[in-house]
Amino acid sequence: MRRLLLVVPLFVALCGPWLSASGDTLHGVSYDLGTGWLGTDFAGRDVWQQVLLGGRGLATVTVLATAGAYLLGVLWGLAAATSRRHLADELLMRPLDLLLAVPSLFLLLLLATLFPSGGLVWIVMLIHLPDIARLSRAAALEAAHSPVVEALRLQGESWWRTTVHHVGGSVARTLAADAGTRLTGTLYLAAAASFLGVGVPPDAADWAVMIERNRAGLLLNPWAVLAPALMIIMLSVGLNLSFDRALRKP
Amino acid sequence: MRPAGYVRRRLPLALAQVAAVASAVFLLAEVLPGDAAVVLAGDDPDPERIVRIRASLRLDRPLPERFAEWAGGLARGDFGESLVSGRPVLDLVLDALWPTVVLASATLAVLVPLSVWAGVTAALHEGGRFDRCLTAVGVALYAVPEFALAVVLIVAFGGLLPVTALGGLTPATLVLPVAVLVARPLCSLSRLVRAGMIDALASGYAVHASRLGVPERRVRYVHALPNAVAPAVQQLARTVDWLLGGVIIVEAVFVIPGLGTLLVDAVADRDLPVLQGLAVLFAATTVLVNLAADLAAFRSAPRA
Q1: CATH number of the domain encompassing residue A68
Q2: Which of B147, B192, B262, B281 should be substituted to probe chain A, the one whose Cβ sees the most A Cβ atoms within 10 Å?
Q3: Rounded to 5 degrees, what are φ and ψ at B25?
Q4: Within this chain, do residues A193 and A216 fall inside the same structural domain, yes or no?
Q5: What is the mean pLDDT of residues B250-274?
């Protein structure tokens, strides 16, 4: 059950574009239940084809933004934890407190307005950065001031070797436990942003955009809204259940 | 430490945080190409027209002067005027505030008792059917985006309940939006209350109190519950962050003319003064709620 919830939307998202026969299939009539398998959408396009096409963008943004946020956030947190001056630590961490004072979806909309050409990936990345940096700094503090690291430093080992190899290794466990919620959090933000029309063209084949655009025809062809909504719900529920199970069995 | 001392120590920090967010938004808007005049000039900008608008908006004066003027206005409660409608930002925000406050307070009024009840019930019958159901549903629903949940609920119950609140919020129009808003935080809050309650009931003081013959009800609700709720109160503060985000989405889905709708419109029009006003309001709310939550946790389970 849990696997099914995850595998079905993932398969549609990743392989859908190959399965979709002809890209955008235009039938001409909006919200027509008679044509195609799931009827047509607001522009008279085949809903099933749109569902097949609409998951890959969301999945790509989610994975890229999560990976990018971890890469940058962990390095940031490690730099703060291993900095030997208190001032450097403060300079690295204090600005992030500002980002935490703003609700994340509001920050997303604000950044999207200020940088209309900036990609959704960068914006979502920036939103996750403070949390990850704080977490990895907290997890790295003890290891960073251990005798082993002092010894490595005295030996003249490079920053990369002491910090990333040695301290980073001890942070990995804490971060792995956090990765599942972070990934679903990213999916949530990316989907919400697309729904509000941020960072995606208004006629894009995207599950969240489909829901937004086809809402007007909810009574005429509910599948145009329900199919992508069910895909998103299945994906987030499946992701969460799978990560939860994986964490419980170490 | 006494609560008053705690607040006195935290308040300046909170004020500094809000001020910093406000200045950051002002400065970010400044460094970007294309100011309000370009937005106002429309699709076919005539350079001469832009210069004229810039002069009339006093945008042609040096940055420190404008920043001082803006910050001074902010301190007096003057947030400037909307670029699109020309109305004062404060009026726009106050108009949109009411539906959002109704929505948020209805959500909290349902959320808090329900999550405490669910968490305590699950903890009292740990491992039972209700407990297992709550855990499974909680994990599953935790990250479902509100808009996806909302459209499914509209399809399922739209025939029974009105789905837009353009005519004003009534108890009937509130049912679906509140149900959508409650779903996500309910999962995390009830699980935290459950975990806290299990720990508290197993702890030395609860066992000792039962041994002394203190009635079970009193042990549960007077001794264990306040300690069990402390971590959940902190999470509730994070919930307000979610709630503000959720409100933006839910207002868009259910067509409720609140702060979320104001925000989405301002984003679409690049209406920077409105955005700046909302940034100050949202940052102040988040900071104050966090402060209040820390204080409540401090009061309910005082520690050094």
Answers
A1: 1.10.3720.10
A2: B147
A3: -65, -40
A4: no
A5: 83
